[in-house]
Specification:
The protein is 54% helix and 12% strand. The protein has 191 residues and is an alpha/beta fold. It has a single domain (15-180), classed as Rossmann fold. A five-stranded parallel sheet has the order 2-3-1-4-5, sandwiched between helices. Helix 1 packs across helix 7 (169-189) and helix 2 (46-54) crosses helix 3.
């Protein structure tokens, strides 16, 4: 098993690497991008990195390789990016399905679960055509099922759980920055 990279001093009193998990539409990309900018970290999104590497959109990967093929690509990108330093990484909603992925996340950084209600997720994703799992007649049913299947996995890996609700990205970033700094201080005090 690969060993985690050595840790550099954290910026702004928050952990070095921050990994965002949660269902599609929870705000991982928007919050992650703003958080990285605020903290002076680099931002990456596993879905965007998969699209960049393959040159095609995720729905086409699902069409050609199926969900299993996509998940294999997702795990490869996750292995690569969890070795980077001083980043914020937005993961795909299903990244936590793999035990290996969950271990990478928990061992190599601080994991934040951005949680939203199924109703909010449905509102936020209703016009998004780049979500193959929601290309069904009733996406609300799929979101409810995914929430039931994955919520415990998100909680298992999370160091922090943040309810996104109807808060703005700026408010979420402020709240998250404060909670990350508190988490870092608590960890330092217990060592």
């Amino acid at each position: 098993m690969e060993s985690p990279p050595s840790k550099a001093p954290p910026a702004h009193g928050v952990p070095e690497n921050i990994y965002l998990v949660g269902l599609m539409g929870a705000g991982k990309t928007a919050v992650g991008r703003a958080l990285a900018k605020h903290l002076g970290k680099e931002f990456f999104d596993t879905d965007q990195e998969i699209e960049r590497a393959t040159g095609v959109r995720i729905p086409l990967i699902f069409d050609i390789e199926g969900e299993a093929g996509f998940r294999a690509r997702e795990s490869k990108v996750l292995r690569e990016f969890t070795q980077h330093a001083n980043i914020v990484l937005a993961t795909g909603g299903g990244a936590v399905l793999s035990e290996h992925n969950r271990r990478l996340l928990t061992e190599r950084g601080t994991v934040v679960y951005l949680r939203a209600t199924v109703a909010d997720l449905a509102k936020r994703t209703r016009n998004d055509r780049n979500r193959p799992l929601l290309s069904v007649p009733d996406p609300l049913v799929v979101l409810q099922r995914l929430h039931e299947e994955r919520d415990l996995l998100y909680r298992e890996v999370a160091d922090l759980v943040i309810d996104t609700g109807s808060q703005s990205v700026a408010v979420l970033v402020r709240k998250l920055t404060g909670q990350l700094a508190t988490l870092r201080r608590s960890a330092a005090a217990s060592t």
